[in-house]
Design a protein that fits this description.
Layout: H1 2-28, E1 58-62, H2 64-67, H3 94-99, H4 101-107, E2 108-110, H5 121-129, E3 135-139, H6 142-145, H7 156-173, E4 178-181, H8 187-194, H9 198-204, H10 210-213, H11 221-246, E5 251-253, H12 257-260, H13 278-292
Parallel strand pairs: 1-2, 1-3, 3-4, 4-5
Amino acid sequence: MRKQGHRSRAVVALLTAAVLGVAGCDAVGGDSPAPTDTRKAKPSPKPTPAWDSSPGSVAAVGDSITRGFDACSVLTDCPEVSWATGASTEVDSLAVRLLGKAKAASRSWNYAVSGSRMADLSTQMAQAAARAPGLVTVMAGANDACRDSTAAMTSAADFRAGFEDALSVLRKKAPKTQVYVASVPNLKRLWSQGRTNPVGKQVWKLGLCPSMLADADALDAAATARRDTVQERVEAYNAVLKEVCAKDERCRYDGGAVYDYRFGTAQLSHWDWFHPSVNGQARLAELAYRKVTSVS
């Protein structure tokens, strides 16, 4: 009798569990339709705009390099041979390569100013933004490093602030404009190439980029340290250009292409052995076109 009672209670427990199990299964679904998920689906992230390798217009901002200074005659701007917007067939500028010569004549603008530094870029950018161009080219920074002394060079922090402000000015008026940013040239290589020319060294004595080019033949510790300081600042500027540009989805930095280019005396103005010659302007146009039209 005792064993039989125990067995009966076990059967009852088993049946109860089975009933509850069936009820529980039906409660969460079983053969019934699945409950509807009332939660709202998260929207897909907004895709990054595709880079347009065929912009319909080009505006340029920057310094004397983009103005073609000393490329045609001494102490004179020569925008005709500008790497960014010039019409010269010897250069085949970025604008001509992208738009064709006829369209480039009416759909490209050069707002660069010889002698300007990064702090001046916002004013130029406002002029460019008013055109709402498809592409803006930026080449600035050499004058920030080329000062009377290393102490007078623009700090990396101020350089960053100037560049960020310039991009902000552009974005307020032309949010969809693409930006190509050229790296600051290698000023130490410029010194090493130009110092081989006696005429160039005499011109440099007139006060051309003294922080790097003063006492061109001096190789003592102080002169070497001075040039190294300038070079380090240029590299810091390029790091800033890369970092700030990377935060803007419509900006492309050249990856250091201009800085890394192994230019020789043929690419330097024979008036001052500092600014790009017509040949040098053509090489800059090639580098820019390659980056603007690349897949990434």
